[in-house]
Amino acid sequence: MNTTTTAIKDATPMAGMTEEELRVQLADFYHLVSYLGWTELIFNHISVRLPGEDHAYLVNPMGLHYDEVTPENLLVVGVDGKLKRESPYRPNPAGFALHGVIHEHRPDVGCIAHTHTTPISAIVMKEAAIDHNNFNGAQLYGRVAYHDFEGITIYSDERDRMLKSLGDKHVLVLRNHGIAVCEADIPLTFFLLWTVQRAAEIQCAAAAIPGPNVQLPEATKRKCAEDAQRLKDNAAFATLLFDAMVRKMKRERPEFA
Ligand SMILES: [Zn+2]
């Protein structure tokens, strides 16, 4: 048995991070999403609330691919959806509706990620959306909120309805559209996004195999979700996982180093 212990870094709460550190970590998150093939042309967003900036948040400039996001070109957007700092770029109004309202009203949330990957977009077309009978899906049991499709999220009157749909959850299924996940910091949000993406991939693969799926008892799914939540609440674990994936990406894609 290997008794060597790997040093676990203390979790760095976002409130203890400087804006510069948040910019670097958020740019890494954008690159990681691209590296994993989860992008949608120039669309979608990942945002991070800036501590002490009156709910302002960092987000990608409209018109750049995730590969082109850098710590320097991330925008600072205020609760009114307008730029708080000068930039040659503009924010995408579709990002403001969803991200702005969550950053304004969910103080427990530091980071939000929204994707339209094919497996996620496919399962959210289904009435049941996320199936909780696979390993990753079971971890999300009882932890998913749902919002009905109203079109592209560019209208301010949908903001309050999206916030109400999310409630106190961290996963919001945008029916017939995609997913939004939110967590306290960047590594935790990446970990949750990865769990949802894997659940969707497995669900799609299982749906292509004839025959009934084994249905898990409710108590098993509940226990699995509770155990997973303890892991997901462990910011040190999420940071280990995030940093390992960033190192792997930078080894294979040195342009992101
Ligand atoms: Zn979208």
Helix and strand arrangement:
Blueprint lengths: L18 H17 L9 E5 L7 E3 L15 E3 L15 H13 L5 E5 L2 H6 L11 H5 L4 E4 L9 H10 L4 E4 L3 E6 L2 H22 L10 H15 L2 H18 L5
Parallel strand pairs: 5-6
Antiparallel strand pairs: 1-2, 1-4, 2-3, 4-7, 6-7
Structure description:
The protein is an alpha+beta fold. The chain has one domain (19-256): 3-Layer(aba) Sandwich (L-fuculose-1-phosphate Aldolase). 41% of the residues lie in helices and 12% in strands. It contains eight helices and seven strands; from the N terminus they run αβββαβααβαββααα. It has a seven-stranded mixed sheet with strand order 3-2-1-4-7-6-5, sandwiched between helices. β5, α5 and β6 (171-174) form a beta-alpha-beta unit. Mean pLDDT is 91; it is low at 1-13. Bound molecules: zinc ion. Residues 24-204 form the Class II aldolase/adducin N-terminal domain. One of its GO terms (cellular component) is cytoskeleton. This is Ribulose-5-phosphate 4-epimerase/fuculose-1-phosphate aldolase.
In a nutshell, what does this entry contain?
Helices cover 41% and strands 12% of the residues. It is of the alpha+beta class.
Classify the fold: give the CATH topology.
L-fuculose-1-phosphate Aldolase
Tell me the radius of gyration: 18 Å
Largest β sheet strand count, sense and barrel closure: 7 strands, mixed
Structure ligands: zinc ion
The domain count comes to 1
Task: Figure out the total of helices.
Answer: 8
* Cα separation of the termini: 35 Å
Family: Belongs to the aldolase class II family.
InterPro entries: Aldolase-II_Adducin_sf, Aldolase_II/adducin_N, Aldolase_II/adducin_N_sf
GO molecular function: actin filament binding
Protein name: Ribulose-5-phosphate 4-epimerase/fuculose-1-phosphate aldolase
